[in-house]
Design goal:
heterodimer; A: about 775 residues; alpha/beta; five-stranded parallel beta sheet; 30 strands; about 30% helix; elongated; B: about 400 residues; mainly alpha
């Protein structure tokens, strides 16, 4: 594409009064770029001006006005490269002239003093022009074969609800259920807790209606007694091998080598070829991930609704509760099974159980934690089961000992109505023991609301065991990905299938696989059905995005994708291993095989690649590298005391908005910092920092999301990987005889705007203390 | 505290408390707002939060033996402020009714007093008794006179000819032969109940750490009772209430009327049997004057109480409350009407009113240890006990 450039400078919103627009225009003209200024560029007239130019052939526009985060729809022109220069929030507004005075005409003529804010604005224009030279208009990646069919794993309430939602939207859907029948646990319950006003009486479980609806829907195929052997390929074009549970299958998913098998007896790492040999032996009888099952079924995306299993209450922690030792102490799931069979009777002798104690927390030792994997659902289930006792026996008594009674939202009304029942007795308390008393039991509790140590007689004791996500035992999805068949970081979430719980529910760490229901957290039937709808919509979004060759999430609609210059690949496998989403597989020699529809376009591979062969059409090593090089570094020859130049690589998801908000609040910070937004700190290639320092810049700061166990990174691993790379850059700096402190990384959340001045200014002061970069002027 | 308490909820008790007006006992979620807002709750182990959970757990024994239920004057501050719509004041009142019936012997009478279906029986007993006695007085006067003369006593206290005297309808002998032993019986029932009561509340107070005084000294309790009498007479506890403060006047009127009428009755008893001066007395007799004022105060006081109760929508009123208020009003009204009809010279009417009046007196008197009115005794003793053990605000 022949590029026709133009720089547009908006003088509205205080830009014109803050900056010397003529001098700014000169910067562009020096580069040979035409310049136009307008007082109100986003207004009707301004946009008309831009449109007229575009129709005249201008296709690379540098718009120096407000932040890229606003008016993005106004300044969007098909087939054009548009770069936004943030003169408003990050120059004019965050550097008010009462704190950063402009030069007088005399001072300008003298040429000894300098205007830091003007210098900042001019660098911003230079960076934008440099970038425009390096980027291209993106073209979407199109799959050769494509399907819109959706696969649902799990035939319980969540799976059936999701399938019905997907089918109603007009998509074909297949439900794969491990057991012999649809319905899951809900189909084996006696009753379901109320879901609507007045929240007083139990309702028949909804599972039966769902099963009927699923069977009646022609868009839904049901496969019971079936599990996934493997899911290969990528969203829009998954090849899925199904099998009977327990069956051995050549397309069973192979497992990646554990770290200890990747080294030889001496601890030296094996070569890629050697590792592949070991891997083949390790996965004897299983086809490699890159081989697709010719008889496999095709699906576009997957809804993971495999649900939960009852927690096993074993060992010392539960010994005082008598579970496993006394037959009349049961878990809530066992109690539900008894209730579904008929009247509540004791397992030990089949006698009527008229006095039942429900225990919500294991207690003992002052710990008020509930049973693991419980939640509001176990509180609500206990209330429901207490009602069984009262429904079965008019003189029945149900005791509930809790540390927490969680009945969120309107289910509070169910709690209230249960509380009104004369035969329900509740107290907060720490259960210290369950013991035998004749043919019955005695439950002892401390710290009760009744103000003393209590004991009550019971025919049965029910423990509110939690709902363990099945992903704790088994990857379930069995993805034929080089990084392994399951999700990598489930341990962070107590084995729940999850990635970014609050910001992006349903998203897992694998694009195209959306989790719903109690595999995400313990949920009631009602919550699971709502969750199913969310996952169904995500699965539809995924196939529709994959079909158009655009990113699903979180860069929804992004048409770019990572492009590899394979001739220079050294098969180091860093990209394959570091990709947070397992988007890259590699062959036996270690050459990466991209799967563009799995990709989320974070650029972590680009940051990882030591050969710098990975890039996107509008975001690559050169586009950012040339921006860094475009920054003018003043030397001591120009000024007696030249100002510092500090590079700030800023995550565009949280840190960049935070800086904008700081500007909107007129919070000021050093004008010697040059801000370049990056897709994710994971995409930061250390070459940019080396370039900056070797051209004489004095320091570099990376601003990104919180990382670690409670990460806030949109791309899960990006900020963490960046921090690892930054520790390694220390050695490189030493070899240049530079201080390690010149490069740092700070965490900024989107609401941390008030911390921005302190973070930036403190770093500037630290660099100031180190003195100017000795390479300045070379 | 070291002993582990075996909680044995009594479903029957819960149902009874609900029936006695404590129907919100299950609504409590133990936030303790009630204990905080209660103006008369002690700082140490304050009520009624713990009473509410004991009630919702149906812990009968704990509550019946709880001295604190008697310290409550049912201001209703707790009920108004409860965020959950429970009415601890009403629940405690219901528990008090239950406790009164529980401490009184025989239990069947206590049950009957709290049961609206048994009201006809409660009325029929005195109605039949007094009908027989009226028959004997009117029809067999001569026989009775000769019988009494044989043992040297005067039968008739009817006074002069032509003057309407109620003694001509009911012999004063009959009236006193009914009420004097009845009074003795009432005292006996109370004594039996109080003995258990005082030991129970003390045992419970020690067990729950409300007092450190382990031994029960009856003299000390009596001293405590004497110490709280000014408080009771001045209605000091009532005036600490925020809600329902206006109840104080009405309650005071009724209380003082009863005291005055008790004094008047005793003076006339002495006048009749020791000074041999039978009624009716002059309206200007100072004792008679006191009786008239007291009677009037009783009518007005009870009417005010009824009005207050009807006006309060946030307070539950159950049969036990209406039974007692009806009785007090009926007593005052029938008494005043008996006198007025007598002065008006309507002989048949005044005799009938007197008959009605006696039925009311009998109900009030005979069922005193069983009805809500027994709070007169239990609350006084409980307050005295609290004073004795130092359980006060």
């Amino acid at each position: 594409m022949d590029k026709k450039y133009c720089v547009y400078i908006c003088t509205g919103c205080g830009i014109g009064t803050s900056l010397d627009i003529d001098a700014l225009s000169e910067v562009a003209k020096d580069e040979g770029f035409p310049v136009k200024t307008h007082a109100f560029l986003c207004g009707k007239e301004g946009v008309e001006l831009l449109k007229a130019d575009v129709s005249q052939g201008v296709n690379s526009l540098s718009i120096a006005a407000c932040s890229r985060r606003v008016n993005f729809d106004v300044f969007s022109f098909d087939g054009c490269c548009v770069d936004r220069v943030n003169l408003r929030e990050q120059v004019a507004w965050s550097h008010p002239r009462d704190q950063f005075p402009a030069l007088t005409e005399e001072e300008k003529a003298e040429g000894k003093k300098f205007d830091r804010v003007q210098m900042l604005a001019e660098d911003c224009i230079r960076m934008s022009m440099a970038k425009l030279k390096q980027i291209k208009v993106p073209e979407p990646y199109k799959l050769d074969t494509f399907t819109r069919d959706i696969l649902v794993l799990g035939g319980g309430v969540t799976g059936m609800s999701a399938a019905l939602d997907v089918a109603k939207a007009g998509y074909k859907v297949t439900i794969v259920e491990k057991s012999g029948a649809l319905g899951g646990f809900a189909a084996r319950m006696r009753k379901q807790s109320p879901v609507k006003s007045p929240y007083e009486s139990l309702i028949p479980p909804v599972a039966a209606d769902l099963i009927k609806a699923v069977k009646a829907n022609s868009n839904i195929t049901v496969k019971t007694d079936t599990v996934v052997a493997r899911i290969a390929g990528q969203p829009g074009d998954f090849t899925v091998t199904l099998k009977k549970p327990g069956e051995k299958h050549p397309f069973d998913v192979p497992f990646p080598l554990p770290p200890e098998m990747k080294v030889d007896a001496g601890g030296k790492e094996l070569t890629a070829e050697q590792q592949f040999e070991v891997y083949k032996k390790y996965n004897e009888g299983k086809e490699d991930i890159l081989k697709f099952d010719p008889t496999g079924e095709k699906f576009g995306s997957v809804i993971l609704a495999a649900g939960w299993r009852p927690a096993k209450l074993e060992g010392e922690a539960f010994a005082h509760l008598g579970i496993g030792q006394m037959p009349d102490v049961v878990t809530n799931t066992q109690f539900e099974e008894i209730a579904a069979r008929g009247k509540i009777v004791r397992p030990s002798d089949g006698k009527e159980a008229k006095s039942v104690v429900f225990i919500q927390s294991p207690g003992k030792g002052g710990d008020d934690g509930d049973f693991a994997y419980c939640g509001s659902v176990t509180s609500i289930a206990t209330l429901k089961q207490a009602k069984y006792v009262r429904e079965d026996y008019s003189d029945g008594k149900a005791y509930i000992f809790y540390q927490h009674m969680r009945t969120p939202g309107l289910s509070e009304n169910f709690y209230k109505s249960m509380q009104q029942d004369p035969g329900i007795f509740m107290t907060k308390g720490e259960v210290v023991g369950v013991s035998k008393n004749g043919s019955g039991l005695v439950v002892e509790a401390d710290n009760t609301l009744l103000g003393e140590k209590l004991k009550v007689r019971a025919d049965m004791v029910v423990l509110a065991a939690g709902m363990v996500p099945v992903t704790a035992d088994d990857p379930v999805v069995n993805l034929a990905y080089r990084q392994g068949p399951g999700f990598r970081d489930n341990a962070l979430f107590d084995q729940y299938a999850d990635s970014n719980f609050i910001c992006f529910p349903y998203e897992t760490q694998r694009t195209g696989v959306y989790a719903a229901g109690s595999i995400r957290r313990s949920m009631t039937i009602e919550e699971s059905m709502e969750d199913a709808t969310g996952a169904a919509l995500k699965a539809i979004q995924c196939v529709e995005s994959s079909n158009r060759g655009v990113s699903v999430h979180p860069r929804s609609g992004d048409m770019t994708f990572p492009d590899f210059f394979f001739q220079r690949c050294t098969q180091c496998k860093r990209c394959t291993e570091e990709c947070p989403f397992g988007a890259l597989d590699d062959d036996e020699r270690g050459t990466p095989k991209p799967n563009p529809t799995r990709c989320r376009r974070c650029g972590t591979c680009m940051g990882a690649c030591p050969e710098r062969i990975i890039g996107f059409a509008d975001y690559n090593i050169n586009s950012i590298g040339s921006m860094v090089k475009a920054i003018k570094v003043p030397s001591s020859e120009e000024y007696d005391e030249p100002p510092l130049r500090i590079l700030a690589l800023v995550c565009e998801n949280d840190a960049y908005p935070a800086i904008d908000i700081a500007g909107m609040n007129r919070l000021s910070f050093s004008a010697d910092v040059r801000i370049i937004p990056v897709r994710c700190l994971g995409s930061v290639n250390v070459i940019w920092i080396k370039d900056a320092l070797s051209q004489g810049m004095d320091g570099a700061i990376l601003l990104g999301c919180k990382h670690g166990d409670e990460y806030q990174c949109h791309f899960v691993k990006g900020s963490e990987l960046a921090s690892i790379r930054m520790t390694k850059i220390g050695d490189a700096l030493k070899s240049l005889a530079l201080e390690q402190e010149r490069v740092t990384q700070k965490e900024v959340a989107i609401d941390d705007y008030h911390k921005i001045p302190e973070i930036i200014n403190t770093f500037v002061e630290e660099v100031e203390a180190l003195g100017p970069n000795p390479f300045k002027g070379f | 505290m070291s002993e582990r308490y075996m909680a044995e909820p009594d479903l029957g008790f819960i149902h009874e408390v609900i029936g006695l007006g404590g129907n919100t006992l299950k609504k409590c979620f133990q936030c303790a707002t009630c204990s905080v807002v209660c103006p008369i709750s002690p700082d140490n182990k304050p009520f009624p939060r713990k009473e509410m959970i004991a009630a919702s757990w149906g812990l009968r024994d704990k509550l019946v033996k709880d001295v604190d239920i008697w310290l409550c004057h049912q201001c209703g501050d707790c009920s108004t402020k409860c965020p959950r719509g429970a009415a601890p004041g009403d629940v405690l009142a219901a528990i008090r009714s239950y406790a009164i019936a529980d401490y009184a012997t025989p239990k069947a009478v206590g049950k009957a007093v709290n049961d609206p279906k048994k009201l006809p029986v409660l009325i029929a007993v005195p109605a039949i008794l007094f009908a027989i006695l009226a028959f004997v007085t009117v029809q067999l006067g001569d026989t009775m006179t000769s019988l009494f003369h044989a043992i040297g006593l005067e039968w008739s206290h009817g006074g002069e000819e032509g003057v309407i005297a109620h003694a001509n309808f009911y012999s004063t002998w009959f009236v006193d032969v009914v009420f004097v032993p009845l009074a003795g019986l009432v005292v006996l029932v109370f004594a039996m109940g109080l003995y258990r009561f005082i030991n129970d509340i003390h045992g419970q107070a020690v067990a729950e750490g409300k007092t450190t005084q382990r031994n029960l000294d009856y003299v000390g309790v009596v001293k405590g009772i004497i110490a709280v009498i000014p408080t009771i007479l001045k209605h000091n506890k009532f005036s600490e209430c925020t809600e329902n403060k206006d109840r104080s006047t009405a309650h005071m009127m009724v209380l003082y009327s009863f005291i005055a009428l008790f004094v008047v009755t005793n003076i006339f008893f002495v006048a009749l049997y020791l000074l041999h001066s039978p009624g009716p007395y002059s309206q200007w007799n100072p004792v008679k004057l006191l009786a008239n004022v007291a009677g009037l105060a009783l009518v007005i006081g009870s009417l005010l109480m009824i009005k207050n109760r009807l006006a309060r929508k946030d307070q539950a009123s159950s049969y036990k409350d209406w039974y007692l208020l009806g009785l007090v009003l009926g007593l005052g009204l029938s008494g005043m009407l008996t006198e007025m009809t007598r002065l008006a010279g309507a002989e048949a009417l005044t005799y009938f009113m007197y008959y009605i009046h006696l039925i009311f007196i009998f109900n009030l008197f005979a069922f005193l240890p069983f009805s809500k009115l027994a709070h007169l005794v239990y609350r006084t003793v409980a307050m005295g006990y609290s004073n004795y053990v130092g359980r006060e605000k």
